[in-house]
């Protein structure tokens, strides 16, 4: 008897727990799903309130086509965003792996000073130094170029990613290195052939954060990219949503937001392990 | 400019073999140091320098000493923006914690499906602030959006209500959007703290007859101090620098009531092109955030006696 009651209580508790979980999950995911589905409505229908969220008058890619006709088009901005994000990933990985290895394995003058200098930039909000960054880029002839934006984004990633990589290299036992050196491995071979495979999870983590950071960044891109052909997706979509290209086409906004969200979501779902790992590393230290 | 990084010529000739090999380390870190110099240290110095000047976009700039700072003292709109930023930071931080803490406890339980829930709750956190703002600006739109038309269709309101037209509903709409976007992130941080609490401590307290609330106050909260401090600082620092959502959804309106500090600096620097004045405002913001970082270091210090 008592057992039956406690079993029923357990079932009720489980039911309560999972209904809470499902409702909360729906609340978090609904706006995303709503947008992705609505974007497939024909333009006429996309202008109306999204009830229900899915297309009722037929599936259409019209909104994506309209989006491509605004200003320099969706495709140009998407290409800019892809270029900036991919370059940010490549460069921040190269720079951070080199620096992480340097800080972990060598002793040289000013080592601690440089390390503290790089890490302390995390305390300074880049929002407060955007004007001089703008002037520095102009001096370098990188004003209004995607390359200049990449430089800024890579720098923003450095404190986190160098910290990550230094710790990753610190975790590799020195014996492995010594054994490889006995076999006659030089510095470059050592780093690429021996060390890199061992710190690979750290590399994936910093690459993921670099991509998401660059893909989603708004303020610096808004300030530094003044030419429409250089707009990244967030800047171009904001211009569209503010009515800069005439009446606001909400169907096009839904399509644009979908294009901006989907790569982040796919990368996160595929590499979730590395993302959480990065957050934990940041939180625990 | 990059010469700063390479000012370490091989002075110490005595070093040989393994000793000299160590110098190569400088080459490895050089690109990182160069980037930080170029895009952080130099701009930081320039901000301080520019803040002492009248510095238009075109034409000559002139030294005016502390003139910009005196002007800030009289700039009521900046102080209003700062006050609004503080108010927003307070409200949004409380709201985020009120949602994230229960979620963290929820996903700390054993499976099944815990990982699925965690992933679901976290999904808005990987979407950018700009995307989230654009998305919600659509949902909040009075004619083509979701909330107002849905409430109308359900008969909750007599006529469509523009959520973004007056301060209170607009402000709380932003709070809702930010909580939706950020709660999952804060949840993961808090979860790491919960996981670090030894299970046997909780069990011992249960044996001693401590109820869930007493255990939460006596064990969970004190042992999570550093994690709580970290989550708090991340939320506060992020909120003080808020810009995207207010720019994209509200354009600082209604009636300039939601201009944040960064937004005001952006307006002064890149709309009015008063670069010197913008730099002085930036310095004020910078001092606030560095002070905050120092508080953070103090809160995050290792507990005495332990580790």
Brief sketch in words of this structure:
Chain A is an all-alpha fold and 285 residues long.
Explain what you see.
The complex is a heterodimer of chains A (285) and B (307). By secondary structure, chain A is mainly α. Chain A has 2 domains: 2-63, no CATH class; 78-248, MetI-like fold (Orthogonal Bundle), CATH 1.10.3720.10. In chain A, 75% of the residues lie in helices and 0% in strands. Chain A has 13 helices and no strands. Chain A is flat, with a radius of gyration of 24 Å. Chain B has 307 residues and is mainly alpha-helical. Chain B folds into 2 domains: 2-50, no CATH class; 76-299, Orthogonal Bundle (MetI-like fold). Chain B has 14 helices and 2 strands. Chain B has helices at 18-21, 24-50, 67-74, 76-107, 114-126, 129-139, 147-153, 167-195, 199-207, 212-223, 225-240, 244-250, 261-271, 275-299, and strands at 53-54, 62-63. Chain B has a two-stranded antiparallel ribbon with strand order 1-2. Chain B starts with 17 loop residues before the first helix and ends in an 8-residue tail after the last helix. The chains are: A mainly alpha (285), B mainly alpha (307). At the A-B interface, helix 1, helix 4, helix 5, helix 6 and helix 7 of A face helix 2, helix 5, helix 6, helix 7 and helix 8 of B.
Report the CATH C-level class of the largest domain in chain B.
Mainly Alpha
Would you identify the regions of chain A where 5 or more consecutive residues have pLDDT less than 50?
none
**Counting H and I runs of at least 4 residues, what is the number of helices of chain B?**
14
Whole-number count of domains of chain B: 2
Strand line-up of the largest beta sheet of chain B: 1-2
Radius of gyration of chain A: 24 Å
What structural category do the secondary elements of chain A indicate? mainly alpha
**SSE class of chain B:** mainly alpha
Count of helical regions of chain A: 13
What profile does the largest beta sheet of chain B have? 2 strands, antiparallel
Mean pLDDT of chain A: 89
Silhouette of chain A: flat
The coarse silhouette of chain B is globular
Please indicate the percent range of residues of chain A in DSSP E strands (runs of 2 or more): under 5%
Overall average pLDDT of chain B = 87
CATH homologous superfamily title of the largest domain in chain B:
MetI-like
